[in-house]
Amino acid sequence: MLTKAYIPYRGYYSTPFVRWQGSLANEHAIVLGAATSRRFFDSKGWDPAMIEYVLVGSTVYQQQWFYSGPWAAGMMGAHQVPGVLITQACSTSAFTLFQAGMGVETGTYDNSWCLLADRCSNGPHAIWPNPNGPGGKVVAEDWFLDNVNKDPWAGDAMIQTAENVSRECGITREQCDALTVRRYEQYQDALANDREFQKRYMFPVEVQLSKKKSITVEADEGVTATTREGLVGLRPVLPDGVHTFGAQTFPADGNCGVSVTTREKARELSADPKLEVRIVSFGYARAKKAHMAAAVAPSAQMALDKAGIKVADVGAVKTHNPFAANDLAMAKVLGLDVNSMNNYGSSLIYGHPQAPTGARLIIEGIEELAKKGGGYLLFSGCAAGDTAASVVIKVG
Hints:
The protein is α+β, with helices and mostly antiparallel strands. The protein has a domain at 158-195 and 281-389: Thiolase/Chalcone synthase (Peroxisomal Thiolase, Chain A, domain 1). Helices cover 34% and strands 21% of the residues. It has helices spanning 29-44, 68-75, 92-105, 145-149, 158-169, 173-195, 228-232, 263-269, 296-307, 324-334, 347-350, 355-372; strands at residues 12-14, 18-19, 53-57, 83-86, 111-119, 125-128, 139-142, 205-208, 214-217, 252-261, 277-286, 314-320, 375-383, 387-395. Helix 2 links the parallel strand 3 and strand 4. Helix 1 (29-44) runs parallel beside helix 2 and helix 3 crosses helix 12 (355-372). The longest helix is centred in the middle third of the chain and has 23 residues, at 173-195. The relative contact order is 0.21. The mean pLDDT is 97.
């Protein structure tokens, strides 16, 4: 359990998420993320020099990614501090925030900034030397798609892992379709009253198209309207599977930023000093081969146990749900109401830019609890390699 790591209320942002090959397709994820963080600091009147350490969470290689941490720190105006790169697929946000919290907890630093930035669009195509191949023919890898489509340890594509868990848990096509419609309805709640909920945390991103022209992206792009009738007409992605393309997420682009600091500094930076946001605990798990979605529930239980609370004590649950079966399996194991999880949106509906996904979900959970007057937030999500990570945060 952590006792000293706090997030200033509204000391965070998420850009809109944009379906891949959209408005952010040609933007360098780290450069764009640092520029957006710098603009966010300016909007708050924050001096970047106050930052003592920068943690960059990123998963899709960009040019000069090698320098991500200190480079991002310099670009956002924190020239004097070092930075580190953290990468672990879909659990990158959870681990980055926990690592930042550990730094504060141990007194390593008092004020850190977490930048979560990825671009799934136009991913790199790697060429690996292969001297023993026929004629020395190289080995080629599509950095993003090849890894989504095959786990080198378990041997299956990610969607196959979801189908494996669905069979074990008795999850049906009808349940997946119904939950997808429910998640879309929850996302619509975030758009009500001219996107009132999203505007609590969403920060526009600026894209420079040329020397004379730039655009501002203020809202999510690429979300597909979802109806029960529309889903029924889709074929399963895999033969005899329960997931269609409508019941799984899609790659996207975007970034998030989160301040993790001491209680005193959080009060100073908070939009409401009376509202405290504390990182409480972290949990992790690994399921058996090719059963990625099954890891979410035990990771969540570990985080709850370390926080000293039960699932009934939780006021909001947010999950990274690349497949509808993820939420159905987790709810079944933990005894959750699957229809009450992921209020105001989830990655199933607005897309998955990898590293920023968990951060946006956590931010949405904080804002949901702020509207309710406080409580415990549980965030959980699966990640590559049949793993999962979870975080408990206390608001209020």
